[in-house]
Fold Tyrosine--tRNA ligase.
Amino acid sequence: MTYHPKSEFMRVMIDRGYLADCTDYQSLDEALIAGVVPAYIGFDATANSLHVGSLIQIMMLRWLQKSGHKPIVLMGGGTTKVGDPSFRADERPLLTDDQINANIDGIKQVFSAYVTFGDGPTDAVMVNNAEWLDGLNYLEFLRDIGRHFSVNRMLAFESVKSRLDREQSLSFLEFNYMILQAYDFLELNRRYGCLLQLGGSDQWGNIVNGIDLTRRVLDHQIYGMTSPLLTTSDGKKMGKSQDGAVWLNPAMRSPYEFWQFWRNTTDADVGRFLKLYTELPIEECDRLGALEGSEINAAKILLANEVTTLAHGAEAAKTAEATAREVFEKGGIGDDLPTVTLSAEDIGDGISIVQLLVKSGLVKSGKEAKRLISENGAKVNDEALTDAGLMIDMAALAAPMKLSAGKKRHALVVAQG
């Protein structure tokens, strides 16, 4: 990055690694110095929580507000009915209005931990694009908005081109998505004076379309900025773990499991993740990221504590660390412990220890579990397991339960409250 920004927000974006591309560095930088810049990110309501893959965008909105600007959280109540085709191999399943509204309610809970909502000039607002999309008149929309879009240009965008190159079907419904997202930017500029759209680098084509449309219709200059699409150093998609998505909503992923996900960060990712997902000074992030051997584990615990504090509060982070110390350090377990999460429904009146050993992946069958127990190879919380008929209820899972098969293979069982 050769551009040297003057505004605090742009400086943070560049220095901490949030910035992949920007439509006009200098003009945006000048706008950020001149006054409060309202900026938005759109989130489609395809689930009732966001996961860690969206956290980089949420942190961008947090830094935006911390540096004196106004975050607009745009919920895609309208666009979710279409589904973003960007870099997808197939069409998203269509949701009902009730499902979409329930998902928006769940997502709202996540944001209040990261940005401050209110009526002040830099307070965040949450807006639903169903407000303007649901009532659109199709013929008027085609005439007033559709005429500004070149199909040739839309086909050239990588998000569409990659789908067509693989000869995978792209429905007319999905093809409309980029027009609707462009229209969102136009409406947010008209209604809220929004000057900037933030998003992942897979949204570049959609963002550019919105800028172009707003210039043509309103003759206003607005800007786009994208963040890199993150993968871990071993090539995995950010936000996924062994047992699925790492959700930000505590009802879908317990604070303990959330903490553990960050504690299990690969050594090579620690410095980068500290810059992106915490507010520690950059010099400290670099120092911690350069640690080696057992010292890097202290940096991982700090990372887990900082990220969990932002998402779930300091008390949840403190409890998670204490639980981890109790479970791990007593038994000298390695870093990456598989975790099985059970709901009250899964447990019912009780679940057998044999079933738990199978669910944890430590054994392949009930028969193998019983043999392991009979040969004194199984342990529960580091105590030898001798009763193959042992039943586990919710009370027994008030704290995470550690299962062991031999000396080196372990798993954790957690009850979701």
User: Anything to note?
Assistant: The chain has 19 helices and 15 strands.
